[in-house]
Amino acid sequence: MKTVSLPGSPRKQGNSSAVAKHFCNAAEDIGAAVRAFSLNELHYRGCQA
Q1: Model confidence band, residue 36 (pLDDT cutoffs 50, 70, 90)
Q2: Which end of the chain offers a freer environment for a tag, N or C, measured as fewer CB atoms within 10 Å?
Q3: Using CA of residue 13, residue 18, residue 22, residue 23, what is the dihedral sign?
């Protein structure tokens, strides 16, 4: 199983990050491959339509 975590909060030590970290740890415990990305650190552009 592959799992992706995308917390969107700008606070690295905030509640969203804590919940995401707990989720990732639980997923890894059952054998999932986990990738975590902080949306606040990614460079992306919204819809251009």
Answers
A1: very high
A2: C
A3: negative
